[in-house]
Amino acid sequence: MMALVLFLSFLLLMCLGIPIAFSLGISSLIYLLVADIGLNIIPQRIFGGINSFVLLCIPGFILAGNLMNASGITERIIRFANDVVGHIRGGLGLANIGSSMGFAGISGTALADTASIGSVMIPSMKKEGYDAGFSAAVTSSSSTVGPIIPPSLPLIIVGTLAGVSIGDLFLAGAIPGVLLGVGLMIVAYAISVKRQYPKEERKPFLVIVKSFFGAFWAILMTFIILYGILGGFFTPTEASIVAVLYALVIGLFVYKNLKLKQIPKIILDSMVSTSAILMLVGFANLFGWILVSEQIPILVADTILSITESPILVTLLIILLLLFVGTFMETIAALVILFPVLLPVATTIGMEPVHFGILMVLTLIIGLSTPPVGVCLFVASSIGKISIWETTKALVPFLIVSLIVLLLVAFIPALTLFLPNVID
Questions:
Q1: Backbone φ, ψ for residue 367 (5° rounding)
Q2: pLDDT (tens digit per residue) in 166-195
């Protein structure tokens, strides 16, 4: 009964348009008041949720990404991707996806990818004769690559919750991320050929080399972070600080687009983003504690396993649940609440925590581009100045491919575990 109060108040608050963090916090407060539990538990659980050394890397990576973006990295990555594939039919669509794969190592979040890449690519694609729906659909679907290719904020959260190596999670996300990007490119190319979308002239080799070096320094940051963590040179938190210093040097002295007067505002924006994420994590931890106290994880596990004990069917049930949750709940909040609930179920059927972490993140971020309320879908439609319905129609083939990749990741563990096992 008390759990019902928690869930109903949470759903009602979300339906009223209250931000997810506050919905979690207010519904938890209502539960504690009705259950007559001391409110001193609120600061204890919130602090417990954010009191993690690993989480200190979040502000560092956010700041590094904002510094690199202010340095004009978005345009450089787009230019390089377009120079490489622009001569292919539908080259701008392919460049859009390729840019998302390159930008993933800078932002690590799907929404940042949609907003940054989309603001440049969607108007350009429409101007060149691409359908607005196709342009928005490509941008929205390709943004799901961001939280899989390292460094990734959702994977950092998973590592904190599961107590597994962040480096292993970063490695585990590389192959699924590339596989997803390639799959989306195949769909974009097939649609472009069918609709006879334009293509540009092939760029001379020297032009491609020049644009490569324009994007090289940003791409190199990803490899520095990975090599440093996996090589034992620094922790993820220390890696984020290295990334900030690297971004400052590149922005000020290599690209020279970053100005000293911009830095205070960039720091302030990064503080706001970090505060929002940590507030979300703190309230979600309080919400999750209530779920545990109500024995919801045990109930969920027993319910799923009572339906079937088949590993294949259990995996499919988890995927369906996460796809549904991902359509209306922010990824990090869903991870903090549901990962501890579903991990015991996953391990019961023999799934490794690293494998399940990648599967859960990938499933939730696909939900960000899934109607009716996927946030990336809304952002892309807004930039393209078209209705959600138009974008949704164009999005269907991309969603199908994303789901195929998701099933491959779910049922072929080697796709996620190969790199961590080889490098370890």
A1: -65, -25
A2: 888 988 988 998 899 899 999 999 999 888
Distance, in Å, from the CA atom of 27 to the CA atom of 53, rounded to the nearest integer, reads 28
DSSP string, 106-164: HH--HHHHHHHHHHHHHHHHHHTT--HHHHHHHHHHHGGGTTTSSS-HHHHHHHHHHT-
Token digits for 109?
Answer: 């979040």
Q: How far is CA 314 from CA 139, 220, 349, 356, in A?
A: 32, 40, 8, 12
What one-letter code names the amino acid at 188?
A
Low-confidence ranges of the chain (pLDDT < 70): 1, 103-113, 371-374, 424
Tokens representing residue 158 in the block: 């998973």
What is the rounded distance in angstroms from the CA atom of residue 97 to the CA atom of residue 94? 5
Per-residue pLDDT at 409: 95
For 309, the token pair is: 């004990």
Q: Residue 75 in contact with residue 258, Cβ under 8 Å? A: no
Residue pair 225/151 in contact by the 8 Å Cβ criterion: yes
pLDDT given for residue 103 in this prediction: 66
Q: pLDDT tens across 212-233, in order?
A: 887 788 778 777 887 887 777 8
Tokens (6 digits) for 293? 């106290």
Among positive and negative, which fits the CA dihedral 19, 16, 294, 31? positive
Measured CA to CA, the distance from residue 286 to residue 218 in angstroms comes to 37
